[in-house]
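2024-03-11 09:14:02 DEBUG pipeline.ingest accepted 1 chain
2024-03-11 09:14:02 DEBUG pipeline.ingest length=235
2024-03-11 09:14:03 DEBUG pipeline.predict start
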Amino acid sequence: MNTIPLDKFQQWMQSVIEHPGNDQEAWHSKSAEDALPFQTALNNVLPSKSLQPMERIAIYRNMFYLRMVDAMEIDFPGVLHFLGEEKFDKMIAEEYVQKYPSSSYTLNNLGRNFPQFLRESQLPKKQFLAELADLELTLTNVMDAEETIVLNQEDITTVPADKWDTVRLKPIQAMTLLECSYPVGEYLEAVLEKKPTITDIRPQKNWILVYRSEYSTRHKNISYEEFTLLRALQD
């Protein structure tokens, strides 16, 4: 076994783990061979009592994609429910993360391109699915939004009466408004509450408020008038 620099081995291992093909294709891929020739890599991954070198690295390869699939299942339960687990998992592992690979240290950002991916797909009801993913991604983003100090009664009384015509109220950061063409809020609520979902999905204009309260994210359908008022306050 030849001694090789640690960074070279790490570069090779990352290339093999991230490769979408089978083990042979991953070990012989250009990016892997550029880091370490095949035979050098093989000589530096020792077999265990029960596993050969490729089998040992395969554990990491499998877990790499399984962990991303798990993260997407958690963040997009509505899309998961609509497509079914088998189709959803296959799409994430074989299509989505290949087209939009993870580029962050945290899996929180993995789904940021998922609505766009669905809009570009050939899936039936793709516009509905994209809006559903928009809502679910918004819920994730709202959960991660910075805490905002909220005005209380005492704060309000400190504002002089002659200053109220110049006061500007700022909404909390953990609040977003969505204008949707499909009943995605109704669908997601049914999924989360484990109730029967609508089956006849048709275009239907609706407006949704997404916000965080008591360390949990919530969404609710609101009227057009409520949406217009809140949007005006936001602007």
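2024-03-11 09:14:41 DEBUG pipeline.report The two ends are 65 Å apart (CA to CA).
2024-03-11 09:14:41 DEBUG pipeline.predict end
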